[in-house]
Write a structure and sequence with these properties.
Length: 311
């Protein structure tokens, strides 16, 4: 049986490099590669795109859309797009396998898969099960607060943090951005979180390379009647029962925590979900912990690739 040919378009960027690292020791696929000095060779790039069984696009939105257009007539090539370009498209499968009971099958069967964003993976992972269970009502003013490792900003931000000779260095240990509240991930959170209105999203960056915390604080009194800290935890636990990549931390263990470290899952492709607060209280905080380049990007892309190859 021939091995599947995989081409990472944009393999020299942050996400592409991490995908390559995850596949370095694999013998079940063949990696098609373009030398860095040839990365602007449009003819060679198009040839490799059209030679692949699966093309993984690690490109800016416009370049990703151009690559998809190059493959419009070549239906043999299946596509995983890690950009924002197709995440709200009805014709693309959304690449969060644990999001719904049939989502892994949708990814497995699809020709085109939109890899989720890192922040939305955490936010949707927390919100959607509550919407599906009827605990989070229409009209609830959802807020999402998050901090990411600086690798989420790509090579430019990495250089700003790590290169002492950079012309525009970042020395702050933590900073907010997206202050206009129109971050490009908001439509994705709304659609796949099953929300009827856009959440308020407040992203930030910390002075650590990889890791992420996403928080969704909620007032229990404004959720469905009778909702408690325990019923919220049960909804999450039921939704992710049997999953290996997404773990819902037991409520008793979450209650004993004094802190949650954003870097705990750095280098891993898992996600942990916590329900924090006081039993019998009126407020809870839902927390997702992941690696912004793991389950939040490259790890998810490899997971989606493996699902597509299993079809």
């Amino acid at each position: 049986m021939s091995k599947a040919k995989i081409f990472i378009d944009g393999e020299h960027g942050t996400t592409g490099l991490q995908i390559r690292a995850r596949m370095a020791d694999r013998t079940d696929v063949v990696l098609l590669s373009i030398p860095e000095q040839e990365r602007r060779n449009a003819g060679l790039r198009e040839e490799l795109l059209n030679s692949a069984d699966i093309a993984i696009l690690c490109l800016p939105d416009d370049a990703a859309s151009d690559a998809v257009a190059m493959l419009a007539d070549n239906t043999h090539v299946r596509i995983i797009d890690t950009s924002t370009a197709h995440r709200t498209s009805e014709t693309w499968a959304y690449g969060f396998a644990e999001m719904a009971t049939d989502q892994a099958d949708k990814i497995r069967r699809s020709r085109t898969v939109a890899n989720p964003g890192c922040y939305p993976t955490g936010a949707i992972g927390l919100i959607r099960p509550l919407r599906a269970a009827g605990l989070l009502p229409d009209g609830y003013p959802v807020t999402v607060n998050a901090v990411s490792g600086y690798t989420g900003g790509g090579k430019q931000m990495i250089a700003q943090f790590e290169d002492p000779a950079n012309a525009d260095p970042i020395t702050s240990p933590h900073f907010l951005y997206g202050l206009t509240l129109n971050h490009k991930h908001v439509p994705e959170m709304k659609l796949h979180g099953l929300l009827d209105s856009a959440p308020i999203f407040a992203p930030s960056v910390g002075k650590f390379p990889q890791g992420m915390i996403v928080q969704v604080p909620l007032h229990l009194d404004h959720l469905a009647d009778g909702t408690t800290l325990e019923t919220v935890h049960d909804a999450l636990a039921d939704h992710y029962a049997g999953q290996s990549v997404v773990e819902v931390v037991p409520l008793a263990a979450s209650q004993k925590l004094g802190r949650i470290d954003a870097t705990e899952l750095a280098g891993q492709d898992r996600m942990k979900l916590f329900v924090t607060g006081t039993s019998g209280g009126h407020q809870i905080n839902l927390v997702a912990l992941l690696d912004n380049l793991g389950k939040g990007a490259s790890g998810a892309a490899v997971q989606n690739m493996d699902l597509m190859l299993s079809n």
